[in-house]
Amino acid sequence: MESAARRRLESIGRHLLPPRILSRDLHLNPVSLTESNAVGSSPVIIGGMILDIHAKPFTDPVPGTTKPGEVQYVSGGVARNIAECMSKLGTRPFMISAVGFDMAGEMLLRYWKSAGLSTEGILQSKSIRTPVVSIVFDSSGELAAAVASVEAVEKFLTPEFIKQFQSYICSAPMLILDANLHPKSIEFACQIAAAAGIPVWFEPVSVKKSTRIATVVNYITCASPNEKELIAMANALSSRKQFKFHCESTKGQRQSVESLFQMLKPAICFLLDKGIKLLVVTLGPDGVFLCIREWPRFKSHDLKSSKLDGLGRMSHEFVDESCSLKQNCTTISGQLGFKSYAFHFPALHASVVSLTGAGDCLVAGILASFSSGFDMMRSVAVGIAVAKAAVESETNVPAEFFLHNIAGEAKIILSGVKQLPL
Hints:
15 helices; (wild Malaysian banana) hypothetical protein; metal-binding; about 40% helix; transferase; kinase; globular; about 20% strand
């Protein structure tokens, strides 16, 4: 009975997820170091490893007094979260970061090693004060206040340190940068990637740091801002600062997806015109806008043709059955040219525990799926399903993923995808 159930569940997963990331136990755990990808096949992620201190009051916090609640230490940092999540989804990235020998650094590395992840690219020094972020939530799980001490990311992840791993970057299928890095380090890493023809994914991190795209936009292939980060990025590249965003609501109801898109459309078009090929605009409970000018190109030897052929056939059949996007998906997957496309992917209802890490897991789900040969439509659907699992977890990255659930939820998401006029 148990084996029959397992076969049925794995069969469901195969409709969407690559066979190599299915688990006999119906969830994924990090693979051992002996099974890790060799140099030349691993996405490279550069950015912060941060210890998050989560303070969750039982009732909404009140200024000037303490409130009963729970305080937890959680491994965090945008780049670290993406790397851990990608690993749990079967794609082993190479992480470049820095921590100290202090309590926070030891806690982060202890967890990292226990998950079977490599520390080869992680600088540890007594002169480093490990980045820490203290976060206070409200009773619904939304961020109420936070204080970040992450100067070490800028100070120690220098161009000189990054240069040591140039061979990893030059052989990677993609370079992922989080905007905690110093602008000079971001530019240096981008230049290495550009010289080798490696696509670059820019993760904005925050409204303030998202503006660091200004000096490197010509190198950026993909970016994953939320609404406010999108506007900040566009204004950082515009001399007139003409882009605005106002989240309007009526009687607790958020504005329609269509009106939200019309408000963000000028900034989206502006960034695509600046050369960014793909934007994943996160909208919280309203889902995701996927905006495409051109598909990112991977090196042919990094995505094996045999895997792409099999998954490609399954992909078109799946999309044909799930939503009325056959013509659009065929056009996008083929020769896109210079025409831009935009799609709205709906979010699914979630039982919110914590919202930190959800955006990072969305990006990780997209990258892990895309690196495994999926087209971007299915990759975004998987990413949203992975983000839902993160929202329902107390940690930034869930301890385990039930892939049959992710597969089923991704199908539901794809069935609700709508093309938008861009």
